[in-house]
Design a protein that fits this description.
globular, about 40% helix, 11 strands, Alpha-Beta Plaits, 2 domains, alpha+beta, about 25% strand, single chain, Ribosomal Protein S5, domain 2
């Protein structure tokens, strides 16, 4: 019986100014997917988590992505899938991307398909589009590649791996749901030219900061003048968290994906932990259930952690 188990990282997309084009992988949290080849055609999915997601393969994100691969590559096998999802759906840290990316990487490794990472992103996107209602890879690409990723063009899968300095990431995950499709629906359809120019400059500055290991340039560029002003209204305590974290020396941060999770980048671990304490204090005062993580950037993406052939 051929079987493989993979670990699929959470991801932060947008990185403030890079809406739909920038993303990074995290070492914590993550989910696991176990994939077994079967001689019985079809896909059978079982969740061992508590999120009560559908196990119907034509409605489950992992099932949809895997079926797209089966159809295009004319794979005759069936598959048994076990998903242990530790990234809450609707969290803003790539829950759906972890499932879609994880299942494709697992199938590629298990069957020895030798698909390129770009091809894996393409198949995984078939599942991700169901979750978000649009075709974007700013969570999928870092989940598969690891590190910090620029998606220059989704249509041609022009995906660039960026160098970056050592950084610590503090994540606040309020235990509330914000659906990606809703968070996209409230965004402005038109953007003033002045705001667009400032956003372009921030994206360029952020990428340059990563490449030059220039922490001050990274800090100056972690600014979003288009998306954050709208979406931040959906996240309790957001402005208070960001203001106080900046005062203690974090480089910057903002909304992770479509929210409700919030991320902060720090040069030093001590600063990252101080930012976590601020998040804890504010959310305990608000009386909203939450989780926090102090982690680093995952450099490997989806990883094989078990194999039985």
């Amino acid at each position: 019986m051929k079987k493989i188990k993979v670990r699929c990282p959470a991801t932060v997309s947008n990185l403030c100014c890079g809406f739909d084009i920038l993303g990074m992988a995290l070492n914590d949290p993550y989910e696991t997917i176990e994939l077994t080849v079967s001689n019985t055609p079809g896909i059978r999915i079982k969740h061992t988590d508590d999120f009560k997601l559908t196990e119907k393969p034509d409605e489950n994100i992992a099932g949809i992505a895997l079926q797209a691969m089966i159809n295009e590559l004319d794979i005759s096998y069936g598959f048994e899938v076990i998903i242990n999802k530790q990234i809450r759906p609707g969290s803003g840290i790539g829950s759906s991307a972890a499932s879609a990316a994880g299942i494709i990487v697992a199938a590629n490794e298990l069957l020895g398909l030798s698909l390129s990472k770009k091809e894996q992103v393409r198949f995984a996107m078939e599942g991700e589009v169901i979750a978000s209602g649009s075709r974007h890879a700013d969570n999928l690409a870092p989940c598969i590649y690891g590190g910090i990723i620029l998606i220059r063009d989704t249509a041609t899968f022009d995906i660039i791996e960026l160098p970056f300095p050592s950084m610590y990431v503090t994540i606040l995950h309020p235990q509330i749901d914000i659906k990606t499709s809703y968070a996209r629906g409230i965004l402005p359809e038109n953007v003033p030219l002045k705001s667009a120019v400032r956003q372009w400059a921030n994206v360029a500055g952020l990428i340059a900061g990563f490449m030059k290991s220039d922490y001050q340039l990274i800090s100056r560029s972690l600014e979003d003048v288009i998306i954050e002003p709208v979406r931040s209204t959906l996240i309790p305590g957001f402005n208070d968290i960001k203001t106080r974290c900046m005062l203690i020396g974090v480089m910057g941060g903002g909304i992770s994906g479509s929210g409700p999770s919030v991320f902060m980048l720090s040069e030093k671990e001590e600063t990252a932990k101080d930012a976590e304490n601020i998040m804890i204090e504010i959310y305990e005062r608000l009386g909203i259930d939450f989780k926090t993580y102090v982690t680093t950037i995952n450099k490997n993406g989806v990883e094989v952690i078990g194999r039985n052939e």
